[in-house]
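note to self: dont lose this again. the chain is below, predicted strucutre after it. 280 aa total, dont forget to put it in the shared folder this time
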Amino acid sequence: MKNEPSSARPGRRFRLTRRGRLVLTVTAVVVAAVAVLVPLLLNGGQKEEKALLVPEGWRATQVYTAIDKALDQAPGATAKVVGTARLKLPADARGNPEGYLFPATYPVDSRSTPQSLLSYMVNTAHQRFGADRISKGAQRSGMTVYQTVSIASIVQAEADTPGDMGKVARVIYNRLAKGMPLQMDSTLNYALNRSTLDTTAADTRINSPYNSYQRRGLPPTPIDNPGEQAMHAAINPPPGDWLYFVTVGPGDTRFTASYQEHRRNVAEFNVRRSSASAGN
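---
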């Protein structure tokens, strides 16, 4: 989604929503600290086992790192076994589990291996995404289930609140229907393997199939692992003609079909950001 350059920092385009903050926080804090392994009390609290927590919106690389930590594996060990783990992925995925490492809490014990945890996550995704209502919802939108998971992954990355998810999904469908590039900063962040709150003009010119500023249609794979709320939004978005959105402030995302109105909303966002920066 195209933004206007900030008046406070010429040449930069600020991302539309705050979900990138979640990914950034998870990467910097959760993987390194308490949320990778959580205690699981069994048998009335008599036995404690470990569990791996995979939050909504994690990328596959973050999941691999968390599994390595949970199992005391060398860094990169889980990533190396993905190709031989015999994961039950759709043919469209071409062996890439991105989007199918379902966010949930998974038990970890002495028998756990990278392959077993990856399989558990993918099988859970099939159970949740393979339901009849999901396939019918995808068909109503003229999409495959895999394409719908890709849409849900963008919704997960871009929506400011769960309540915004449906509208973000509708923006995606509207732009696809009009042959417009999605222009989502979250896809650029995925291409560049980063999480950031702003995007430069140079970023929008990178040569990548995930550059949704220059390439039309969906990215070739999901860009994270979406949860059920994002998937529900992707199969059942509300009606609306919105083509643009920007989160002006926490909990205040403005959706519009008018580019001029969108520019005014972006200008308000830039003013607020400048004022906040000046106050620090």
